[in-house]
Amino acid sequence: MVNLKQVTPLAKEYLEELGFLWHTDSDNTSYVANELVVLSEDEANAYAAAANELYDMFVEAGEYVIENDLFHEIGIPFNLVELIKLSWESDVHWHLYGRFDFAGGIDGKPIKLLEFNADTPTALFESAIIQWAILKQNGLEESSQFNFIYEALVENFRRIVTLTEDTSRFEELYEGWRFLFSSIRGNVEEENTVRLLQHMANEAGFETEFAYIDDVAFDDNGIYYNEEKFELWFKLIPWEDIAIEESELAMLLTNIIKNQEAIIFNPAYTLMFQSKGFLKVLWDLYPNHPLLLESSFEPLDGKKQVRKPIFGREGGDVAILDANGSILEENKDIYSNHKMLYQEFVELPTDAAGNSYQAGVFYAYEACGVGFRRGGKILNNMSKFVGHIVK
After folding, report:
1. Tens digit of pLDDT for each residue in 323-362?
2. Tell me, what's the pLDDT at 4?
């Protein structure tokens, strides 16, 4: 059972002062819960250890995918394969951050990987800033969280220049590279998340600029905004969307990387990690690993399981199937044309009201924080964000 602590919710005016404008869901209920998940130190440490171990496994499996040309098997669009290889082969293409989604980890339940949001992870603002603010505003000890996401990302921005764990030489090595941050126009959540990342990059020591994606220009020689060339570009736009909807841009970005005219974040190789098809590769390489769930491109015989598209958002077109393959629950959406992965079903931790909880552990060079989403058996875009406290 999930142990919860009641807190006074943050005022909407305060949230908006912070730049957190998506605080109310479409049914007029608060997106941020007025409870905190209570974790023990051992539980928080176990989430960190799981993410750190899994990241190393993802790197090993990524090398396996590239060496064995498994791009088609895990659903990678053909027009990104060269770019993925280019970004994988050079250390300058630094993975900035991602988010592991876990079942378990509470009340003695084993931690199990559900997926890795490695390219465009959501819930950064709420995990890094809002759940910390809840502690502060409620007079609780601000350090009583597994949450140094902000600090970890500032340090990881510096590693883009130093390429080592030690970032002390950033000022010495930094050559005044300009860093452009982009989101799509008209999505306040994505824009303000990108602006938060821009703020972190400023703090790290970069010169930065923000531009909506439709105002950014590209050619084989670089990335431009207001006729100024940028050596570094962060985009909160999924790589698979670029490949499918903007094939010309995919070709230009490949040439830009090939010509060493810019570096893009998150790198193209994170699309391998983002693909749920990658979970099948992990299971093949690490069968019965305690952090993994059995995963296959074919239905699992005689097991309750989850069917999910290899690319999708917020539980779209995810279904829970019984041991005979009949649908018990389904969340229909727009992702049904994607290849499907079948993953062994595992119960999420629940509270006294029967709500399910999924842990999201952020990774930026190392595991750096956890937040929770609360909802039904299939979490969707109406799921709530729940902060935590470590006791």
Report:
1. 988 898 887 767 777 789 999 999 999 999 999 999 999 9
2. 97
Angle separating helix axes 277-285 and 41-67, nearest 10 degrees: 90
Residue 353 CB: number of other CB atoms within 10 A? 8
**180, two tokens:** 């452009």
Quick check: helix, strand or coil at residue 251? Answer: helix
What does the block give as tokens for 243? 């490949």
Please state, in angstroms and rounded to a whole number, the distance separating the CA atoms of residues 167 and 149: 17
* Integer Cα distance of 139 and 159 in angstroms: 34
pTM of the model: 0.96
Residue 157 makes CB contacts below 8 A (sequence gap 6+) with 96, 200, 201, 204, 206
Q: What is the pLDDT of residue 335?
A: 72
Percent of the chain with pLDDT over 90: 90
Beta-carbon contacts of 317 under 8 Å, excluding residues fewer than 6 positions away, are: 308, 309, 330, 331, 332, 333, 334, 335, 336, 338
Taking the domains of the chain in order of start, what are their residue ranges? 1-293+346-391
